[in-house]
Amino acid sequence: MAVIAPPILDMSTIFKALGDPTRLQIFELLCKCEYPLTLADNGDVRVVCGPTVGEVCCSVTGAEKINSKISFHLKELRLAGLILVERQGKNMVCNVNRQAVEMLQTYFGSRLQPPIEPCC
Amino acid sequence: MAVIAPPILDMSTIFKALGDPTRLQIFELLCKCEYPLTLADNGDVRVVCGPTVGEVCCSVTGAEKINSKISFHLKELRLAGLILVERQGKNMVCNVNRQAVEMLQTYFGSRLQPPIEPCC
DNA sequence: TCTATATTTCAACAATTCACGAAATGTTGT
DNA sequence: ACAACATTTCGTGAATTGTTGAAATATAGA
What we know:
- 2 copies of one chain form a homodimer.
- By secondary structure, chain A is an alpha+beta fold.
- Chain A has 5 helices and 4 strands, in the order H-H-E-E-H-H-E-E-H.
- Helices cover about 45% and strands about 15% of the residues of chain A.
- In chain A, the strands form 2 sheets. Chain A has a two-stranded antiparallel ribbon with strand order 1-2.
- In chain A, strand 1 (about 35-40) and strand 2 form a beta hairpin.
- In chain A, helix 2 packs across helix 4 (about 70-80).
- The longest helix of chain A is centred in the last third of the chain and has 14 residues, at about 100-110.
- Chain A starts with 10 loop residues before the first helix and ends in a 9-residue tail after the last helix.
- The interface of A and B includes residues 32, 112 and 120 of A.
């Protein structure tokens, strides 16, 4: 089955997701991760690697035990379309959604263009 | 001069500021505005134009009367470093802080670079 | 100094978000 | 089917954020 990046519904939802320090920390952690992609039988690109929720949890909180707090924040990031989470056996693995990051770069880039006409 | 991304706490403050629909609307409005800069006597670049708080208010809410709500959101944007507000006679005029926008573009651009080593 | 205009601050309330722990769900191996 | 493991969901309370209208502050001009 294809891994489809969720549609980027609302920019403010995305920014709100990044507006929490814990979530931003998770986001940056995932950005630093390598992103080996594999071609599935049907030709779809599948994200097969990335830290598990437990590993993210450990990296962010330092604790061994999985935190419902991290699960909550991962969900927010996922609903905002910033990360992809998929099951891999017993674990859920997380990856940043590079398309979303690209879109964000473009977003700010296009806001730097000088306007055609003054608005004021 | 290099644009250096501030630490996570500052960044999350910026994203939190953009994470409210009203504030994002104001931000985008100001991005669309022309930004004539003037050189002050001492050589400093001064922002001298931009819509007044009342004009922003009118544009966002449609109402004639100035809203304390907009004032509140402008303050949040200003504290996050996203906009510049300065007095011009009886009015306060608003401009987007283009340096901040540049920094944000750089931020997401640098997060798109493939990592040197896998983290997982 | 008085008045009108522009904007911010304040206080009260409503709404949303966050954290915590317990219970529920889904997966693997026996 | 059962046990162990990984993760999510749920309920509750605390903390934060957003809205509203009234009062306060600042500036310009008469």
